[in-house]
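Sharing a chain and its predicted structure for anyone who wants a worked example. Both blocks are below, sequence first, tokens second.
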Amino acid sequence: METETATPWLTDAEQCAWRTHLDVSRLLMHQLEKDLQPFGLTNNDYEILVNLSEAADLRMRMSDLATSTLQSKSRLSHQITRMENAGLVRRENCESDRRGLYAVLTDHGLATMQKVAPHHVDSVRRHFIDLIDADTLQQLRATLHPVAEHLREQRGRV
């Protein structure tokens, strides 16, 4: 007969750290989204524009873009449809794989990205970067890096 092991509950310090992380994550993403609203963009829109603007030939396979943005293929397809209607992206067939599709950044999408990026960077600075000294930022990166790597590994196992 198996014995049940006791749940290792979080200590007060661990729970405080966890809840602070949750608060910062939610509040920061809410603020960044709010700061994109005057441009008619969401955080998801902006993330897609960033991915495409940094990709070779301003294009990515839809499956790679879904992986990169942590979206299901179905959800990404709906997102791309909205962005196509706004003239930010277009879909193109993949000649090497008839089933594959590319999401391609349009000229309007690139111009939008170039217009919005300075405002987004300013928002990130005002609400995050400038509130933390350089040594602490380096420490934060070093601290969170193993967590990010662990989660990437877990995602790869799905």
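Comments welcome. Residues 30 and 75 are 20 Å apart (CA to CA).
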